[in-house]
Amino acid sequence: MPITTINPATGEEQPTKLEKLTPEQVERKLALAGEAFRAHRRTSIADRTAKMAAAGEILAGEKEKFARIMTMEMGKTLKSAIAEAEKCAWACRYYAENGARFLADEEVETKAKRSYVRHLPIGPVLAVMPWNFPFWQVFRFAAPALVAGNVGLLKHASNVPRCALAIEDIFRRAGFPEGVFQTLLIGSDAVAGVLDDPRVRAATLTGSTPAGSSVAERAGKNLKKTVLELGGSDPFIVLPSADLDLAAETAAKARCINNGQSCIAAKRFIVHADVYDAFTERFVRAMRAQKVGDPMADDTDVGPLAMESTRDDVERQVRESAARGAKVLTGGERIEGPGWFYPPTILAEIPEDAPAYREEVFGPVALLFRAKDADEAISLANDSDFGLGSSVWTRDEAEARRFVDELEAGMTFVNAMVASDPRLPFGGVKESGYGRELGSIGMREFMNIKSVWMEDEGPDEHPAAE
Hints:
The chain has 2 domains: 19-230 and 432-465, Aldehyde Dehydrogenase, Chain A, domain 1; 234-414, Aldehyde Dehydrogenase, Chain A, domain 2 (3-Layer(aba) Sandwich). The chain has 466 residues and is of the alpha/beta class. The longest helix has 25 residues, at 78-102. Helix 2 packs antiparallel against helix 4 (78-102), helix 3 runs antiparallel to helix 6 and helix 4 (78-102) packs parallel to helix 5 (136-147). The protein contains 15 helices and 22 strands. It has helices at 23-40, 45-61, 63-74, 78-102, 136-147, 161-173, 191-196, 209-221, 244-256, 276-288, 308-323, 355-358, 374-382, 397-406, 439-443, and strands spanning 2-3, 6-7, 12-13, 18-19, 106-107, 114-121, 124-128, 151-155, 181-183, 202-206, 225-229, 234-238, 266-272, 327-330, 345-348, 365-371, 386-387, 391-393, 413-414, 429-430, 433-434, 447-454. The protein starts with a strand and ends in a 12-residue tail after the last strand. Helix 8 (209-221) links the parallel strand 10 (202-206) and strand 11 (225-229). The chain is globular, with a radius of gyration of 23 Å.
């Protein structure tokens, strides 16, 4: 069955169709991945980092071309897609510059003449990636993995196949040998078979909690390492000492980033009672100022949702929540006409039985809550099955330290919106997943962390560092 894609801004099917891989083609790619790993792991770190730097140059030099592919396939604004390509280039440069240091042997003093920890690649890694950041999600896995000596197999979301093929081409043009990074144009029903294959040694997934659970279960049966970055319902907490103007302006940006389709987008806005009214007034104004329209236009802030089903889900969640008593402060009605647009929306006074209270709303819908004090703010923030990111706004240092310690999340940003950064580990707790991407910690997730004990002095150099 051919793979078809639809432009979310118009609802029109793209003219070119792609074919899914046959089982025989998948087998050839898996065999190639195994062969490529045996050669790639023996290349020097200097060689791998040079190729990754070249990938970064390609991304930076052709960012507008890649951005247009992203916008046409999943609807993000062109300016944000350009920024995404630039961020991918940054990640490539970061691991090109720091990979050797992150993988250097770590000396440990014992009774041995020499003892140390060495980090060695484990093999082909399957990456099951989502559509919402179609380049960034892939590069934040691939840049450290390929520099580390692993090879990648990408099963991308079915609505962004051209993004997947473009990424494969970037690594090929950067000089990585055939088989080091391959795109698998397969359906979700074929993932289990790939996970079962003994040549695949690990898997990473960014997506929904059910998808993560399914991959983890299958990988667990095969005793394979997994890293999961799943859903989020990030709290954005505003306390009395906060700069309300800056907090409200950032809140609107944090909710509407990527057309509201981000796991780390702020979703639950928990505001201290003393500043609730003042913040709400500013927040409503900031959300109404977000311009919805053609994602290719420079002045558009919010484009369409990626799929018609996504727009329909958001519409249902808002409608049913309002029926249960939630107040719609702005937005709340789908935008008629072609494309899958939904306006920036704020819900307040949301009852616990409303869909928006418990479900992740994957669109530009903010959920507003009033907290009587810091204790209640922490309780509300932690009253979620998710624990990905969190943002707290306060100019009280002691208060900030308390929230950093007590919020159940993999990341806490103080007076800033949550964002991924190649220099810091990224990931969550609870149903938001486990393991980390990015930083030195993320680079070591898919490594054999080998302890070495030597009674006689061995070579000082890591063999791959020559």
